[in-house]
Amino acid sequence: MIYSSITGTGGYLPERIMENAELEQMVNTSDEWIKSRTGVVKRHIAAEGETTCDLAEHAAHKAMKAASASSDDIDLIIVATTTPDLIFPSTACLLQHRLGIRGTAAFDVQAVCTGFIYALAIADKFIKTGSTKKALVVGAETLSRIIDWTDRDTCVLFGDGAGAVILEASETPGIVSTFLHADGQYKDLLKVPSGISTDCTKIKDGNAFIQMQGNEVFKVAVNTLGRIVDETLSANNLKKKDIDWLVPHQANTRIISATAKKLDMPMDKVILTVDQHGNTSAASVPLALDVAIRDGRIQRGDKLLLEAFGGGFTWGSALIDY
Ligand code: ACO
Predict the structure, then answer these.
(1) Which residues contact 94 (CB under 8 A, 6 or more apart)?
(2) pLDDT tens for each residue of 92-138
(3) Which of 63, 127, 164, 202 could form a disulfide with 4 if both were Cys (CB 3.0 to 4.6 A apart)?
(4) How many Å is the maximal CA-CA distance in the chain?
(5) Residue pLDDT, tens place only, 149-175
(6) Ligand 1 near 38 CB (within 6 A)
(7) Closest protein CA for atom 7 of ligand 1
(8) Ligand 1 pocket residue status of 255, Cβ below 6 Å
(9) Phi and psi of 175, rounded to 5°?
(10) Burial level of 102, CB count in 10 A (0-12/13-18/19+)?
(11) Edge-to-edge, what's the strand order for the sheet holding 3-12?
């Protein structure tokens, strides 16, 4: 049996930091409201002209260095993003070219905030079939480009960034299980209501923005993430206490603490970056993973539960023996 395991991680955040105080000047909000309702203290915003592929490239280089992987070694590239540089070619193809790689499969995955979990699950399956030996899996976003900076309901939540992992064939797990789900009946609760074949003038004019019914999203997210914890533990015959670290999608500290409670897990066993990064959508889980590996909290041999929930709705988990 072939398994896949993470041999390197990398993360990148744009230089520009936007603190809550700056948002107080833009919309009718307060630092106190943002911190207490979301946990966000600051977020990073891509510079003008800085693209999702730029962020992805930085994160990819760091992950490759950590895994001692060269461009010649990579035989699959998957980029999870909702904010690609172009309609096509895919951001994965642009990244492949930047990294000097030719001929490997390279494609994007669009599952909004669950995108990285989807991409990781796909790469894991490629490796398990024997068709891939070393995959570069990236979550990268410039969400600031699809935010209405006059809408206080959404503009306080999001940030830009990228996270990456190298996933390699291995004789032992690695990735123990992945679960992916979606339910399109919730399509209207969280969306950008324009696209190439719908109202595309908004895209051309730069007026395609995230719309969210935050309260409704919140309720479904808490229930769904609780269910995915149960699904993952029961499928792997694990008890709550077997999980060493929860690495959740960084949407909101209140959603994250509800999931931790479901696991009877103290918050010091939960990787939290939403305060520093905001919600970076597909980048949030690999960024949080990279932070906790680099600062030494996550150690080899630890059992990790990665989970995410996002637009679609989509949701998923990855259980990892790191
Ligand atoms: N500053 C000040 N007041 C605000 C702000 C703001 N930025 N935004 C909303 N308010 C007001 C509202 O207008 C409302 O006022 P009212 O009572 O006078 O009507 C009040 O605050 C409470 O609003 P709620 O929406 O009930 O606040 P809630 O506690 O639900 O928090 C939040 C809102 C933070 C958006 C929360 O609902 C949330 O986190 N939802 C989930 C977001 C999420 O998980 N998204 C999923 C992934 S994202 C993706 O996939 C791209």
Answers:
(1) 53, 85, 86
(2) 999 999 999 999 999 999 999 999 999 999 999 999 999 999 999 99
(3) 127
(4) 57
(5) 999 999 999 999 999 999 999 999 899
(6) yes
(7) 152
(8) yes
(9) -75, 115
(10) exposed
(11) 3-12, 161-170, 134-141, 76-80, 105-109
131 contact partners, CB below 8 Å, separation of at least 6 = none
* pTM for this predicted structure: 0.97
Q: 172: which residues sit within 8 A by CB, 6+ positions away? A: 3, 5, 321
- pLDDT(199) > 90: no
The dihedral built from the CA positions of residue 219, 223, 226 and 232, taken in this order, carries a sign that is negative
211-243 pLDDT tens trace = 999 999 999 999 999 899 999 999 999 999 999
Would you call 176 helix, strand, or coil by DSSP? strand
Place of tokens 């324009």: 194
Which amino acid type is present at position 14? P
Q: What's the pLDDT score for residue 159?
A: 98
261 Cβ contact list (under 8 Å, min separation 6): none
Q: Which residues are catalytic?
A: 113, 249, 279
Helix locations, 243-283, DSSP H: 253-262, 274-277
Q: Which domains does the chain have, with CATH numbers?
A: 3-172 (3.40.47.10), 177-321 (3.40.47.10)
